[in-house]
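Thread: magnesium ion complex, take 2
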Amino acid sequence: MAEIIRSVRGMNDILPEMTPYWQAVETSLKQILDSYGYQEIRLPILEKTELFKRSIGEVTDIVEKEMYTFDDRNGDSLTLRPEGTAGCVRAAMEHGMFNQQQRLWYMGPMFRHERPQKGRYRQFHQLGVEAYGFSGPDIDAEMILLTARLWKKLGLKDITLQINSLGSTEARLNYREKLVEYYQSNQEQLDEDSQRRLLTNPLRILDSKNPDMQSLNEAAPKLIDYLDAESAEHFEQLCATLREAGIAFEINPRLVRGLDYYGKTVFEWVTDQLGAQGTVCAGGRYDGLITQLGGKASSAIGFAIGLERLISLLEAGGTLPETKGPDVYLVAVGEAAAAQSLLLAESLRDQLPDLRLISHCGGGSFKSQFKRADRSGARWTLILGEEEMSQQHIGVKTMSTGEQQTLAWSELANFLSTSHFDNR
Ligand code: ATP
Ligand code: MG
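Output below.
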């Protein structure tokens, strides 16, 4: 027998036993976004490679080694999106959306050629949220409050907020000099990655996941001590709002984002429940990106939630939303009953559009059909056999009690609706 073909490493199937959880989480996310006035934007998964090089930055991990890039049949270099911000900005510029304030979100797969491990995959999913045309710290606070509300709605507790300010471009450049001096005078303690970053992107050394780099990074000069006055004021106002709103946070001076386009506010929601991959949500302000991509100067801020990590965290905390079987499983034995059962099911669906009904297909004995009904988790099993057919009756078994009764076909819809089937 030929060997079966397996999925690409790091690209996972999300199987039917898990999709109800994904759907429930997605529904909660959408409800909250809608309640804050954020609108969905649907973006292509493929973009021109140039877009990511210009936005994310040539010397980031993503562009240096993680992108899925290929030439298409015309010889154009295309890339599977590693994140959504660049494409969202591209779309907003293309459609003149920066003329007005925008609150936007999107959800979908992202692709990065990383080493697969728990919480780190090559295809993963993000909810991305972006706001354009707001320069003050009020929107920064709104976004953080929105995420806090989300965790509350999902019942998440083991998650903490870290914030930092990356300041203006000039402040970052000044700081960069100090940082390079510091690392140069401790060069023997730098790991290989950090040696390389010292030349290309020294701020990223602070983001190192290597425990051996921890103490060196902890003693490094802090960006927050080099902030320009405007960024310092912006940050102070954000902190004040968060305090007034009762949102606990920690100022983490080593918090930098993996992408180059951030300035001023950055934040992450982290947990210690997921091992090394503890960042569930990450975001910040990226005003500079818009001109970098050829647009008129504007303000922008956004965040992304890693959905695999969010769902793992819900699983770890035992707070995955409940899922339920269908309301009804319809069993039909014999040819005539099988034919009739499909019609009966359609008539019930006409009358009760929210009814969740599985109509047995594929025949088989009463016993085997009942087994399926049981396994489906249905609240009621409806039974149509020869005898019921002859009288236009149907057997109704309430699965939780085992109680059985017989109803006329014409009474069925009324019975189900007055028994309050789950109309989800
Ligand atoms: P990390 O430091 O964990 O590599 P990052 O800084 O590269 O994260 P972002 O680009 O900010 O991550 O993406 C936002 C979120 O998307 C992350 O906080 C995480 O929850 C999720 N994420 C990023 N990369 C992956 C991945 N390879 N697999 C699963 N989730 C991911
Ligand atoms: Mg990364």
